[in-house]
Specification:
This protein is α+β, with helices and mostly antiparallel strands. The protein is built from 5 helices and 6 strands. The chain is elongated, with a radius of gyration of 16 Å. The structure holds zinc ion.
């Protein structure tokens, strides 16, 4: 069978995520619909309403079927970067602009990000948020110049 890694709606290639991550991200009543051992993807297109879908597009989970706002989607509110400690993009930007944070260590100290991380079940990508914290720091530092 041909594998479809593309989002069924926008046709962009999604990012592979763990089954356990999808199970924890979808609304309680939909958990049973996430089939064990199945491969899921997260649609990374900010304009697309699809969050997760499985390889053969039999199962699709939309924004409103997921428990948390997906930071990379347009109008995510609040826009969490660290889901484990619910630290938002704005908090990180403020820490850089107002409190002089320059690196991830400063952000951890000032915002409490990345503590007791259970990224596999809290982060929509199932990954540690540190690269995205770094990205946000860089963005804030650049805006400062
Ligand atoms: Zn999509």
């Amino acid at each position: 069978m041909e594998e479809k890694e593309n989002c069924p709606k926008c046709y962009e290639i999604g990012e592979k995520v763990k089954n356990i991550t999808v199970k924890h991200m979808v609304s309680e009543n939909l958990m049973g619909k996430v089939v064990d051992e199945e491969t899921y993807y997260l649609c990374m297109n900010e304009d697309c309403d699809v969050v997760y879908y499985n390889l053969n597009n039999e199962r699709i989970f939309y924004k409103e079927e997921v428990k948390v706002p997906i930071w990379l989607k347009k109008n995510a509110n609040p826009k969490y970067i660290c889901y484990c400690n619910q630290v938002t993009e704005q908090q990180i930007i403020n820490a850089v602009l107002d409190d002089g944070a320059k690196n991830i260590k400063d952000i951890i100290r000032l915002t409490g990000a990345m503590k007791n991380g259970k990224c596999e079940i809290n982060n929509p990508l199932g990954k540690c948020c540190s690269p995205f914290i770094q990205e946000t720091i860089n963005k804030a530092l650049n805006s400062k110049e």
